[in-house]
Structure formats: C-alpha cells, structure tokens
Write a structure and sequence with these properties.
The protein is globular and about 80 Å long. It is α/β, with parallel strands linked by helices and about 600 residues long. It contains 17 helices and 27 strands.
C-alpha cells in the first residue's frame, strides 16, 4: 500500500463508519476508490490543502440552460458556445450549464439518464468544447431521479440493483416534522413486483427520492461524478443536497449522514488530480446554509442564498438597513472556501433564506411589488399544515422596474446597482444569462407550461437576439455592454479576490458600502452603492480615505480627494474608490 493510498483510506474510513456503520468498511473503501479512480487512474500523491488559489478576482460565472439560445438549425450547445465566445470570452471565465441530460420535467432536474447528454442539446463533445475555454459547472442531481427513468422502471419490476435504490415510507410513519420545499404530497403510492409501496418525493411525484442508506446509490453517483470530470467539468454542483438522507420522525434535512457524504466527496476532490470545486445548493435559512462549509472539509463554495432577497428589498425600499445588518454579521469564508454571490438564477428568488432577517411586513411589501411588476409567488407547506412564500417568480430585470412606490424611470440604473453589489462582495459573482440580457418576464412560457418558474426561463431566438445585440440602442445591448464593462473592471482588481479582506461600512442607510483590501494589502477599494432614487453625498472622511494616496473611482474615472468636498451620488450610482487601478503599475 502506497503512502497516498494509506492517507486516503484513513480519511475515508471515519466517514464510511459514520455513514454505513453496518457495512464492511475496508471493502466499501476499496469500492469507493475504484468508483472514483477507475481503470488504473490514480489520486494525487497528497491531498490538495485548503487555500485561496482555486479562484481569483478574474473568476465569475454565467448561469444558463443548454438551450437558452435556439435557431431551429444548429445544436443549442453550439449556439451557447458561439454566444460565450462572441460576447463573454475574456470577461466571464466560467459557465454553469444547467442539467443537460435527458429529463421528463422541472426543466432538467428530473433526470432519466445521468450518463448521456440530451440529444436535443448536443453531446459530450459539445460540453468538452465549451470546457476547453470556460470553467464548466455541471449539476449532480443526486437527491432524486425521474419516475420515467430506467432506474425507477427497474425498481417497479424488482430488478437488481435498482430494486433498492428508492426511499420507501409508509403513510403511517411520523412525517409531520419533515421539512418541505413544495406543497405536493410527500409520498406517492406505486405498484411494484413486490407489492404496493409508497415512495418518497421531496419535490414532485415525477422526482422520486433515492435511498442513500444503500451504499450502491452513493457508488453510482461517484462514478457519474467521475464521468463529468473526465468530460471537462471542474465545478460540481450538488443539487438539493440538504434533503439527501431521510428518516421518518425527523425533519429529514441537513442530517449528519448528509454532511458526512459531502465530506466524503470533498476528500475525493482533494485527492483528484483535476482541480475540482464542490458547490452545495441549499436554499435554506442562512445559518443552515453556512453549515455546508463544515470545518473547511465540506463544500469549497456555497450559494449566498440570503443575498438575492436582501438586495431586492434594499432596492425596492430604498434602504440598505437590512442588507447592511446581515452583511455586517456574515463571517468571512474560511481558508479554502468561498461564497457564490448572485441575484438571479434559473429558479425564483428564494424567500426561505431571509427567515429571521426581514420582518413579515417587509416580505409582504416585496410580494406586493413583485406582483405589480408581473411576477408570481410560489408557496410551500409548513409544519402544522400552513403555507408560506417559498420563492418569487420574475425575471430579475423586471423585478427592478420600480420600488414599493411603483414603477419609475430608473429600471436600468437600479438593475446595474444590484449587479455591482454582487461584483463587489467577498466571493465569486455569478450572473444568470437572462440578467445579462435584460430578459423581460416570459408570460407566454407560463401560460404554455402552467409552471410559474417558466417566467424566468425564456428561450431566445438566437438570430433575433444577435440582431438586438448589434443594435447599440436596444436594452439587451445596453445592459450587456454595461455589465461587461463593470465585470471587466472588477476582474483586474486584486482587492476583489474572492477571499480578500472585507469590512462593512456604517454610512447613510441609503448607501451600502464595503471596504475591500487585497491579500497583499497593496490595494484598497471602497465600494459604495446608492440603493435609492435620491441624490445624496458622503464625506471622504466618513470612509477613512488615507491621505497621501491618489484615490480614483474605478467606475467613473473621477479623482477623489481624501480631504476634499463631499462625494456626490446620483440615484443608484455606484462608486469603487481605489488607491490604484489593478491594471496599472504596482498592481498586486
């Protein structure tokens, strides 16, 4: 046994013992290693240690479906590749291609075949081609599988090994404590070769939950994870991972075994030759979300899920009070960890992550505004039989139409302010393609599908989109141009490294302010964002600009005197006031 193998086995042994105490530990470790390093592949000599070298200020991501662009002639993944190279190369370094597998519902998240690319999109070669120029993130949809999949068909027929792949429960079980993200019934009655059964369905009856109490399920997903990596994927998103382990009589969310499985996957990533980043998708209250960092031994990155609704509230209300209060209490990510910051995504704007952060009346005001801007509200079941708002369904651009007072003329400025905050915060910024393109609400999509989330999942006719982007006066061209400019400025600044120092500034409640400092302490950036429709100003003394330095607003190019007059802000104006431009001499 080599030293590498011995170290790896020691790390796996404790985790296997916690997850599967009744299994032959040594045999299961052999099978785990074989699943992730098949056919003679070998792990690194030493585990990759936690560090801040997995990412830099140049890193940002675009989130997109594989068929966000269609033309009726070319493969959608080819069109996506063309769009990325034509409009985002040199600006955005990574791309999250939402589930690109065959599926039956939920726009890809009810997978029928984990090993194939959806032929309506393209094939693995198309994924590899994109991965040759961009850092690709893929979805490991590991909580559930489509009810039309071969796996579930085999389960119904009693065929091994899938006859033990799905979680069964009884209506007589104590299911009241189970945390639900939906209002549909938790259990689905099915007829199997072994008689009537009830299977667990966290999200929908077409998405049947897998049973990770069976180690064969884990082993299969480790093989699938290896397939993704071999095809160029470098960021693996663990979809709905919080619900992985279930036990009747418990909330069946964030179970100890779930955290142990994430830790096991992290060990494999740390020993992988490829630099794999593990990202957990846990749309839950903030303190629960942060638990997936573990002790620097679980996810490399977590979604900053509280950020979208708090930024939304700030810009609709004109005050950063709650955003500031939350950010001031947020811990910096531990060494080797990072936040993924975003506003818009393929899902709606989740409201669970602001439980305890926003008063109910403020949440009610948000819901009222979103409905007035053409949006929808999705509900979830709560313990005790009630319902509460789970997410807001609207495109982010249309969510910026106005404020609690109604629509106004500041939509573009308000939108750009929201995205500039995302760029300035500690972490890695991610931008949904429909935010980059100022896509309006797709009401026709909702009417056609009956699904509220379709409002934010428009499919662009690619030639029509290119024509809009060629017209500098179109909203799409204007927003993309401004977004690219700001992302381009950001990526040159060492002070915007995802792990660079950050302090929240105490300013006028209409200003959301941060101080960022590069890891080598050479560059400081005071990132100030007016979240209101009012003109205001701030004294240079209030942000402690150091004398003797030449301060410049990176966004406007204006010189700022540390002892001069007050610094003015137009409605929704943002300023990144720095002692140096990271692109210039002396950049760290």
């Amino acid at each position: 046994m080599t030293d590498t193998t011995q170290t790896l086995r020691i790390k796996l042994a404790g985790l296997v013992g916690r997850i599967y105490p009744d299994q032959d530990r040594e045999l299961l470790i052999d099978r785990i290693v074989e699943a992730f390093w098949p056919e003679g592949a070998r792990p690194r000599r030493r585990a990759r240690m936690p560090s801040n070298r997995l990412w830099s200020s140049e890193d940002s991501m675009v989130i997109t479906y594989g068929n966000s662009f269609t033309d009726g002639q070319h493969k959608p993944l080819d069109l996506l590749n063309d769009f990325l190279h034509r409009h985002l190369e040199g600006t955005v370094g990574g791309v999250h291609i939402l589930p690109f597998f065959p599926f039956t519902s939920d726009d890809g998240f009810a997978v029928t075949d984990y090993r194939s690319v959806n032929s309506n999109l393209g094939d693995w070669e198309d994924i590899q081609r994109i991965a040759g120029s961009f850092r690709v993130m893929s979805d490991l949809v590991l909580n559930h599988v489509s009810s039309q999949s071969n796996w579930f068909h085999d389960y119904l027929q009693g065929h091994e090994p899938h006859d033990r792949f799905f979680f069964e429960a009884s209506p007589e079980d104590d299911l009241a404590p189970v945390v639900r993200p939906r209002t549909s019934p938790l259990l689905r009655a099915v007829e199997t070769a072994n008689g009537p059964r009830h299977v667990w369905c966290t999200f929908s009856h077409d998405q049947v939950d897998l049973d990770f109490r069976n180690p064969e399920v884990l082993l299969e997903f480790l093989r699938i994870m290896r397939l993704h990596v071999d095809n160029g994927v470098r960021i693996v998103r663990l979809d709905a991972v919080a619900f992985l382990w279930k036990e009747p009589g418990t909330p069946s969310i964030h179970m100890p075994q779930t955290h142990a499985i994430v830790q096991l996957m992290r060990v494999l990533c740390d020993f992988a030759v490829e630099p794999i980043v593990l990202l957990t998708e846990t749309n839950v209250p903030n303190h629960e979300n942060l638990s997936y960092f573990g002790n620097r031994n679980e996810a490399h990155a977590v979604y900053n899920f509280s950020l979208p609704p708090l930024i939304l509230h700030a810009l609709l209300s004109g005050t950063a009070e709650y955003l500031h209060r939350w950010q001031a209490t947020m811990p910096p990510a531990q060494l080797g960890c990072a936040y993924l910051n975003f506003t818009a995504s393929h899902d709606g704007i989740g409201m669970r992550p602001v439980e305890g952060l926003l008063p109910e009346e403020q949440i009610g005001d948000i819901i009222g505004a979103i409905r007035s801007f053409g949006g929808e509200v999705s509900m979830r079941s709560t313990v005790g039989g009630g319902e509460s708002a789970y997410e807001l369904n609207i495109t982010w651009f249309d969510a910026m139409k106005g404020t609690f007072a109604g629509e106004d003329q500041w939509q573009v400025d308000r939108f750009l302010c929201s995205q500039t905050i995302v760029m300035a915060l500690e972490g890695i910024p991610a931008f949904y393609v429909h935010a980059l393109l100022a896509t309006p609400n797709d009401h026709a999509g909702v009417e056609k599908t009956g699904i509220k989330r379709a409002i934010n999942r428009h499919r662009w006719d690619y030639p029509a989109l290119l024509a809009l982007l060629d017209d500098p006066s179109s909203l799409q061209a204007l927003v993309l141009r401004q977004m690219k400019r700001r992302i381009g400025i950001r990526r040159r600044q060492p002070a915007f490294h995802p792990n660079a120092t950050q302090f929240t500034l105490h300013l006028d409640h209409r200003l959301f302010g941060l101080w960022r400092q590069s890891l080598d302490r050479d560059q400081s950036v005071f990132a100030l964002h007016n979240v209101s429709a009012e003109d205001l100003s701030v004294s240079p003394l209030s942000i402690n600009l150091i004398g003797g330095e030449d301060w410049v607003d990176l966004l406007s190019g204006e010189r700022i005197s540390p002892t001069g007059t007050e610094i003015p802000f137009a409605p929704y104006q943002c300023r990144w006031i720095s002692n140096r431009d990271g692109a210039g001499p002396g950049a760290g």
